[in-house]
Amino acid sequence: MVERAWAVREKNDPFVVPSFETISFSLPSMGSWEELIKGQQDGWVYLSDGNPTLAALEKLLAKIQGVDSCWVTSTGKSAISATLLALLNHGDHIILLREGYKSTRLFVEGVLKRFGVSVTLIGVDDIKRLPEYIQPGKTKVLVLEAPTNPMTRVPDLNYCAAVAREHEITTVLDNSLAGFHQHGDVAVDLIVHSLSKFASGVGDVMGGAVLGSNDRVRQVKSSNVWNTDALSTHAAVELWKGMQTYKLRIERQAASAFEIARYLEKHPRVKRVLYPGLSSHPDHEVAVRQMKDFGSVLAFDVDGDSEVMRKVLDRMKVFRIAFGTGFTQSIANPAWLFYARSFPEVQTGLSAINESTIRLSVGIEPVDELIADVEEALR
C-alpha cells in the first residue's frame, strides 16, 4: 500500500508532502529485504532511519542550502550534538567561538569535556590568529557561527575553512541565524541549522538539520544510529509547509531589521547598535563580502543601566519578551540575562554583552509599526 501511495505521487503530485504516520515498513518477500539491506534497492525500514516524508523535507532543505545531502533531527541542539559526537573521540581537541550559541558551548564544556575532549574558546577578533590555537594531531573540529547569537559577529568563513582544511580539521558551521539561502558556497564541511527558527517561521515546531556532502552527512547519521533523535513525521510536514514561504519571510525580515538598525543608530538614547549591515559594525566588510543579506537579528545598548533596559522592554507592545529567533512575530529579550550571565568573559571587547543590551529578532509586521514600538519604549 505504501508503494502504491508513493508511486501515485509521480503522476498526480499533491500540493503538500504526504505524511506517513508509521514507524515500520514492510516488503513482500525475504528476497526484497535482502536486496534492501545490501543496498541493491531503495526502500524504507523504520522511522528512526527515515521515511518518505522526512526524505522530502531533507531534499528541499539541501536544495535551498545548495548542498548534496541533509539529515533532519528533532531539535537544533540534537543536530549540533550529534554532529560533534560523530566527529570527536577521547583525546581530541575542539575550537569554537566564545560568541557562539550558548547551548553549543554548554554541551562542549559540560558533556564532551567529561569524555576527554579538550576545548579552546576563541573570539571573532582572534580569528586571524587561528593557526596559533591549533594543536597539531589533536585538533579535529572547528565550530563556527555567522552571524553569532546574540551579538551578530561575522567571522571570515572562507579564511577559517582554508586554515582548517590545511590542518585536516573538520569545519562545522551553525548557520541558523543566516538562513538556508546563505553560505552554501562556503567551503565548510558541515552546516547545522535549528529548524525551529526560519524553517518553521511561526515558532510552532522544533527541528534540526545537518547538511553537507553525502559522505559527511552519512558519517554523522550512521555514527548516531544508537543515539538517534528522529524528527516526527507531523513536524516534518509542518516544517516542509513553513519552507514554502521561507524566501518571502526572510526578505521582509532582513529588510525591516536593516531599517530598524539604521533608525536605532541615530537615536539619542541608544549607545551602540550591532547589525552586520551597518558600516559601524566591526565585521561589516566581511559581511558584505560573505552574505547575501544581513539577517533579521540585531543588538543594541540603551543609554542607561539594567533598570533602564528593563523599562524599555516592559514598554514594548509589538515586540514580545521571549526566547526565539526567526519567527513571524517580533521578539525582544535581555541579552545579558538570556545569553551571557553564565560567561563573564563575553561581557568585554567588541562583542561585549552589557546589562543594558537588548537583542531584537525582527518579524514580518509592518516596519513602521515596529519602529514606532521601539520609539515609544525609548521615549
* The CATH homologous superfamily of the largest domain: Type I PLP-dependent aspartate aminotransferase-like (Major domain)
Strand order of the largest sheet: 1-7-6-5-4-2-3
CATH fold-level assignment of the largest domain:
Aspartate Aminotransferase, domain 2
How many domains would you count in the coordinates? 2
Low-confidence stretches: 1-5
Architecture per CATH nomenclature, i.e. the level-2 architecture of the largest domain: 3-Layer(aba) Sandwich
Supply the number of helical segments: 14
Structural class determined from secondary elements: alpha/beta
Give me the strand/helix succession.
HHHEHEHEHEHEEEHHHEHEHEEHEH
Mean pLDDT over all positions: 92
Question: Radius of gyration, Cα only, in angstroms?
Answer: 22 Å
| Count of individual beta strands | 12
**Helix content percent band:** 25-40%
